[in-house]
Amino acid sequence: MIYQHIPTDIKYATQYGYFEVRAKSQKGSGMHTAFWATGVEDEAWQELEVDISEHPGRNAQQTLMNFYKWDDPNATDSAGSVNVGFDMTTEYHIYAMEWDASGIKLYVDNQLKRTYSYSPNYRMNFYLGIYENAGWTGPLDTTIAYPKEFAVDYFRAYKRDPNATPPADLLRDNFEDGSATDWTTGLGSWSVVTDSSKVFRQSATTGEGIVTNGNTLWHNYFVESKVKIATANGGAGVIGRYQDANNYYMLRLNNTGDKLQLYKKSSEIFTLLQEIAVTVNLNTWYTLKLVMIENSLDGYLDGVKKISGITDSSISTGSIGLRTFNADAKYDDVGAGHNY
């Protein structure tokens, strides 16, 4: 066997940004195609490797999305295999990496697949490659004719403009105009009242109260609100991706047991996705925020992320809402948007 070294010229290296290719892989055992990044190694330890998509050709629908620390003492290894749901060898699709100071996210066709909380504080190179590996990718299938190719439509890199105006909110309501006509009442008794300032109150103390607002086609966004519960043994929260009364996500405070809870309601059935213990005092304002990005769900209480690492693909789009259960509760400063 003859091994040939392919010279690599470093033409492009940077820190932070969004990087993507639209590509089609080579099929066959023993083959693999890859789009990946590594540290430039301005210092020898700066070696984090990110496999944005490393595709063994023997499995048409499975790609590897790995993080290898190598000599970077601040990083950790995290290997992952992702089923993309299509044949990577016959169709062009987009594979991407988003990298900022908070970490790294990997995408397939704009769908979030893997996250990594470590963000290297050094430049990285980006590579495209095709290999006859005849090793960990399986024995080489010699029946596949040449030429063999990694077909790349484009590579694109984007940098965030620090002077850009943050995206506008999708919705913002502090009820100071005394009106809630934009809200659709499903259940409960809702009205704008005064509590130092104008707020939105649901006053029924038994059963469910729901109001909704926005567009059922909203996809990736946050919903947030200040919430104050006045009734013992009740709960109140915010709703995201509301499709109808039987399909949505909800982040709520429950003062029965003092808990912050993330639920989904799908096909009429409530499922508790995660809960944590918190202190829920009556007649006290708290700020809830539910962030929904692709299949990833995060919950915040008073600006601190309390619920994370939740993935669920049951509901992809929907409007926002407010919901109470067995609780007289008030809401203020309700918002939704993309500036997470």
TrEMBL record:
Superkingdom assignment: Bacteria
Pfam families per record: 3keto-disac_hyd, Glyco_hydro_16
SUPFAM superfamilies given in the database record: Concanavalin A-like lectins/glucanases (SSF49899)
Domain GH16 intervals: 1-163
InterPro entries: AL/BT2_dom, Beta-glucanase-like, ConA-like_dom_sf, Glycosyl_Hydrlase_16
Family affiliation: Belongs to the glycosyl hydrolase 16 family.
PANTHER family reported for this sequence: GLYCOSIDE HYDROLASE FAMILY 16 PROTEIN, GLYCOSYL HYDROLASE-RELATED
Name the record gives this protein: Family 16 glycosylhydrolase
